[in-house]
Amino acid sequence: MAKSKQTYEEIRQKRMEENKKRMEELNLTKLSQSLLSKPSPVKKGKPRTFRPAAALTPVRRSPRVADMSTVSYKELPVETLERTRRSYSSRRRGFGVYASSEARAYAIDKAEQIQSRLGADFPSFLKPMVQSHVSGCFWLGLPVYFCKSHLPLSDEMMTLEDENGDEFQTKYLARKTGLSGGWRGFSLDHELVDGDALVFHLVSPTRFKVYIARAYDSENNENKEDMEEDNEGKENIDNDKNSDSKHLDGIAKRTRASRK
């Protein structure tokens, strides 16, 4: 064991001497001493610049959207815009109210009078309005017999012309026999309500002349009649009061004469 240990020490010592000779040949010892003698330069600290926080957005790897601006999902306060208040007439205030049977009958009677004056040169039909035609009003069904006899066999754009000459484009659906797109605008613009009656006069294959009979005109007439009846009732009451006062005056005069 001693011999093996001695040989190890001898081998180690020889290697150290060989390494030292190689370092001297390469001048590595001098270089290491020169490096140790030089002081290390003092590093100047750079001022720290504050950078804005990077947006936490996913990296766009697709070249198709790489050049596009990134979408921000940050919640921002929304500026509320002032909405202009629309003025509605008394008819629109009653929108959604079901018409009475008297008002509905009045409008139909008025529409029949309008239809009778149109003549038979061009076909026409009468269409009373119900809530489904004017509330939501995306659809207006037409009489099937009229559609089969006079209207196009395929879908077509129809023109609705009112009594003032204003025109509205609507979509006629042949299979469903009714007006779809554009009917809402016509209904809202003319303030149609439940109980109104319309006369559709087909003046050309794709043009209707539309006449409107208002249901609530009858309320004005009824109000006038009620006012007239109230006035007549007041006049009768006044006449009765005058006759009663005259009768009492006559009785008082007779009693005074009998006392004398």
Automatic annotation (TrEMBL):
Record's subcellular location: Nucleus
A Gene Ontology molecular function term of the record: DNA binding
Residue stretches making up the TF-B3 domain: 125-216
Disordered, as annotated region: 1-54, 220-260
Chief location of this protein within or outside the cell: nucleus
Pfam families in alphabetical order: B3
Xref: InterPro entries: B3_DNA-bd, DNA-bd_pseudobarrel_sf, REM16-like
Recorded GO CC terms: nucleus
Alphabetic keyword roster: DNA-binding, Nucleus, Transcription, Transcription regulation
Bias (Low complexity): 28-40
Bias kind Basic and acidic residues: ranges: 1-27, 233-252
Keyword Repressor in record: no
Protein name from the UniProt record: TF-B3 domain-containing protein
Native organism: Populus alba (White poplar)
